[in-house]
Amino acid sequence: MSEALSSLQIPEYRMLWWAGVFSFMSVQGQFVLRGLLAWDLTEREGALGLVYLVFGLTMLLATPFGGVVADRFAKRTVLLMSQSLIMIGAFAMAAAVLFDVIEFWMLLVASISQGLSFAFYGPARVAMASELVGREQLGNAITLSLLSMNGTRVFAPALAGVLAGIAIVGIGGAYVLSGIMSLVSLVLIARLPHRPAADATPRNPFAEIAAGVRYVNSNRPLRRLVVSSFFIIMFGFNYVAFIPALVEGIFGLDDTWVGLISSAGAIGAVAVSLPLAAKADGPGAKRIMVIAGAGFGIFVMLLGLAPTVLVAFGVVVVIGGFTTAFQSLSNTLALTGADDVMQGRVQSLMQLSFAGFGIAAAPLGALAEVIGLRSAMVIMGAVALGATIVYQLLEMAADRRLADEVAPGPLPASTV
Fold first, then answer.
1. N or C: which end of the chain has fewer CB within 10 A?
2. Alpha-carbon gap, residue 191 to 201, rounded angstroms
3. Distances (CA, A) of 328 to 73, 147, 212, 237, 290
4. CA distances to 144, 217, 363 from 141, in Å
5. Alpha-carbon span 359 to 362, nearest angstrom
């Protein structure tokens, strides 16, 4: 157990971890509440997809700059600004709902705001974790960071769904609670140490982004990891966008069940997090990551075929475990393979998979309206599984080439 929690023994990282817990509680709740509002206002899968589309497009455009900022500015400052934006968004949505002026376009603005905050928060948080614990514990720190995110998913979405279904609280009251959680996170971040960036020399941000892309492109193992992660998350993780449609539209259940199913993935995530944290820096990390990616794709396909809500709940539990394993290990392998001055930009490119997830939600939502939600989910899982298989085949081919290059040639005739 002490090995699995080793990073939390560092006081500064422990404070960053708790700040993440409250931030993710807020964000997870807001994801569910936006989905509920989008479905209640339109009752269309395409509307759910559109809410995620604008989130994804915002991240796609802003995340590369988030990586540059994480490499060039103090991480605490970036985290403070990002968390402030998350908090303001929560309270603004609370006011719109409580004063009964909510409209669909406001959900799109909220998605843009959260996409912008994520674009800067994610790279800065991971880069700061690396700064606080060092490379030797990086895998452990990343896995525990995901534990803070996924642990909140055990109850935060369910809590948001339950509160939304209680007349005296409702969606507006749930948004108020989300804003308070963001405020707590902001206070904790303010107590973190202020460490100037190692290289704060002003440079053209577009040139810095291009340098990061060239760096990843020139590193073949890193390039394979970034590209495969992009497709696996972009398609596979989209199952979360359509949980309201699955629960309410197919199973005919209420908002409470939307929160419960949304939380189910976190149960599996938490179950694997501590054992994974002890192995994340070990030699078998890549093999576990590939198994997790394949399992992720297979179980997203099974979710599309789930006959009852209880079966769907169990499937999502397993998906949560595979998702956490894949995300933890892919991020660890990417950052341990990157130079210190490039970690923010490498993390921003890894995070672009979530921009892809948001962008793909709209066309997948439109596809679901044509061929049915179940069929669309099977396609999502199949693409994630296929991307994992392609990655593994490319890695095996690279290993064979390396073995051929280092293999000794034939002995000279005189020595035979």
1. C
2. 26
3. 25, 9, 21, 15, 12
4. 5, 26, 35
5. 6
Helix pair 45-72, 75-98: axis angle to 10 deg: 150
- Residue 386, token pair as written in the block: 């296929």
Instruction: List, in order, residues 6 or more apart from 379 with CB less than 8 Å away.
Output: 235, 364, 367
Q: Structure tokens of 376?
A: 């669309």
Position 297: which residue type? Answer: G
Structure token digits, residue 323: 């998702």
What does 149-199 look like in DSSP terms, one character per residue?
HHHHHHHHHHHHHHHHHSTTTHHHHHHHHHHHHHHHHHHHHHTS-----S-
Give dist(CA 394, CA 380) in Å, integer: 22
Instruction: Quote the CA–CA distance of 185 and 178 in Å, as a whole number.
Output: 11
> What number of helices (H) and strands (E) belong to the chain?
14, 0
Which residue stretches of 191-308 are H helix? 205-218, 220-236, 243-244, 255-279, 285-305
User: Residues in the chain with pLDDT < 70?
Assistant: 1-4, 45, 135-136, 146, 150-151, 153-155, 157-158, 165, 167, 197-203, 255, 259, 273-274, 276-283, 340, 354-355, 358, 405-416
> Are 118 and 57 contacting, i.e. CB atoms less than 8 angstroms apart?
no
Tell me what pLDDT residue 414 has: 47
Can you give the pLDDT at residue 82? 93
Buried b / exposed e along 206-222 (16+ C-beta atoms within 10 A): eebbeebeebbeebeeb
Query: What are the structural domains of the chain?
Result: 9-193+213-403 (1.20.1250.20)
What pTM value is reported for the model?
0.69
10: DSSP letter? S
**One-letter amino acid identity for 50?**
L
Q: Rounded distance, CA 324 to CA 275, Å?
A: 12
Instruction: Say if CB 127 and CB 348 are below 8 A apart.
Output: no
CB atoms within 10 A of CB 22: 22
What separation, in Å, do the N-terminal and C-terminal C-alpha atoms of the chain show?
55
Give residue 61's pLDDT. 83
CA 148 to chain centre: 12
Quote the DSSP letter at residue 100: T
Q: Supply 14's token pair.
A: 């422990």
Closest CA to 51 of 375, 297, 357, 258: 357
Q: What pLDDT does 126 receive? A: 79
Amino acid 80 reads L
Q: How far is Cα 166 from Cα 157, in angstroms, rounded to an integer?
A: 14
- Dmax over CA atoms of the chain, in Å, equals 92
